[in-house]
Amino acid sequence: MFVIGDFGYYLTAGRTETDGFRDNSWLHQNDVSLKLLFDKKEKIHVSLYGDYIDRSYGVPGVKPPVGAQDYYVGVEKFYNSESSALLDHSTDKDGHIVLNVKGKPIKWFGYDWKGYYTALENYNYARYAFDGTGAENWVKNRVLGTDGHLDIYPFEGAQLLLGFEYKDFNWKNQNYGLTASGLSDGSDSTIDAHVFSQGYFMEAQYRPFKYGKVFAGFRHEIHSAFGSENLPRVSVVINPFETTALKISHGKHFLAPTLNDLYWPADPYTRGNPNLKPENGWHTDVTVEQSLFKDKLFMTVSYFHWNVDDKIQWEPDSQGVWSPINLAGYRADGIEAGLKVGPFYGLSLGLSYTYTNAEEENRDYIRQDYGWPPDIPPDFQYFMVKRRATMTPQNQFKGNLTYQSHFGTTATATLRYVGHQIVYNTETTAYPDTQTINYTIGDYWTADLKIEQRLFKHWVLSLSGYNLFDREYDVRLQSFTDQTTFKNTMCGYPGRGRSVFGSVTYEF
Q: Which residues in the chain are classed under CATH 2.40.170.20?
């Protein structure tokens, strides 16, 4: 909302609170954001944006198997039949500041520059049911960055983009051990890491006639820990008719491990992997778009292909310790289809479907002997297998039906479907021999509804319902150990049950 001439602002503040639908699944969140604007149309547009989020939440873990009983260490209850972790909780304190200056002062020249600072602090409190001990850790991320580009239009139908990007990452992890009574045991460890990345890119596109456009791009990526990489990309757009487009794109992929991937401190259930390599690969996309009836009907169909070496993936070992690894190979082929209809009489329909056929090449362990270093070295034996990619559904669907009235009411009904997923788990048969067991996360669908009503120009009343039919489904699997029988069972982490949220907003 503009308040004085070319100056304006946008301010938001929110509070979210829920007890959750399982023990220790509570959430308390406060957030605020402010955006200041100075707008001189195409000549110059300046915005300063800042936000802060303070979020605390329980970490309930997976749902134990049927028959699990309440388990105590001393007087503290560690798990029950609903949640495998009743004491674990986390806090996030995240802030962002972004300054953006852009404009197009003359017909053939435009610019866009951004500078930003991000401060993220994550606190984790964890207790271990096997003996009552635990750990506290603080993970701090500080990211200072800038990026920008120039748009040059040398002649009719041509555009040249020249740009850069710089990011500086400072990461710190402090970890403190806890006794069985939840007090500090005097042990602590601190890990610091610093990396930076630079990117320089150039993109050129040219439309020689109305029936087509060609595009070529090149990016030179520099990473302080993983060297440099050249990333080319080429695209072609063909327009045989005014409302028809055929788009073909092919390019190179590069992704460096995060500092959490590399240096996350070791505990009984997780650890980082400083030996990770960056992902490298190629991707291809072919898309057909068709618009009809004055854009009242829009259809799109896409084919995509990914071929990635050293894809980074977190997975557990035979002891249930999660750590990131590099896959030997990863390939994915798929189809995406979309349909948008309307609006007609205030109604709009949106449908999307994705089919993914993904394959990973990974280790199938037959032996995981941890030895007794340095006297007895570890002995891990495996053979390589190609198999369906883990945690990747083949079929996904989403449908939205939206109604907008002339008296300020908006209602959106959403239907989602996610197909079944495969999870591979390395399990001990007779130590140190192991085998890989395949588990399945079943398919599921959910239905949501959001209704919003504007009143007296400034007020907005909103009511949102999620998973209205209270469908039971899992979003991931993890091993659970019953401390009374010492039996390990793969259990699911339940998705959100039926939830209803109401909000009142005042805009000024």
A: 1-276, 293-508
DSSP-derived pairing of the beta strands 158-178 and 488-494: unpaired
Looking at the DSSP assignment, which residues form a beta bridge with residue 188?
176
Residue 506: predicted pLDDT? 73
Q: Is the pLDDT of residue 248 over 90?
A: yes
The residues near 190 (Cβ < 8 Å, ≥ 6 apart) are: 172, 173, 174, 175
pTM score, two decimals? 0.89
Pick the CATH number of 293-508 from 3.30.465.60, 2.60.40.10, 3.40.50.720, 2.40.170.20: 2.40.170.20
Predicted confidence (pLDDT) per residue in 480-500, tens digit: 999 999 999 999 999 999 988
Report the Cα 237 to chain-centroid distance in Å.
30
Instruction: Provide the pairing of β-strand 212-223 with 227-238.
Output: antiparallel
For the domain 1-276, what is the CATH code?
A: 2.40.170.20
Judge whether 51 and 96 are in contact, CB under 8 Å.
yes
pLDDT number for residue 2: 54
Tally Cβ neighbours within 10 Å of residue 228. 10
Q: Report the mean per-residue pLDDT for the chain.
A: 94
Contact 356, 316 (CB under 8 A): no
The span from the CA of 138 to the CA of 166, in Å, is 26
Examine the pLDDT at 212 and tell me if it is beyond 80: yes
N-term to C-term CA, the chain: 8
Residue in the structure block whose two tokens are 């993109």: 203
Taking the C-alpha atoms of residue 464 and residue 451, their distance in angstroms, rounded to an integer, is 6
Measured at the CA of 471, the angle between CA 469 and CA 473, to 5 degrees, comes to: 160
Q: Is 234 helix (H, G, I), strand (E, B) or coil?
A: strand
